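Thread: "does anyone have the structure for this chain?"

Original post by V.I.:
We have the sequence but no experimental structure in hand. Need at least a predicted one for the grant figures.
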Amino acid sequence: MAFSTQSKKSGKTYYLHHKKVTLRGGREQTIYFFAQDVRDGSLDAVPAGYVVMENARTGLPMLKKG
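Reply from O.Q.:
Generated one for you, tokens below.
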């Protein structure tokens, strides 16, 4: 089951996903993002070393190292 969080501002549910991308220099990096539906690359838990926070202005969830 994908990790989900609900926005305090809008009440919408968002699901955590990850994706490997290649940067211009050729280095690979994993990005984390939230979407309103479950897609390929969904995660069951928040990665170690990250916490979920919410943007106060938009109400969108995001990950923060901490």
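V.I.: this helps a lot. The mean pLDDT is 95.
O.Q.: and The CA atoms of residues 9 and 57 lie 9 Å apart.
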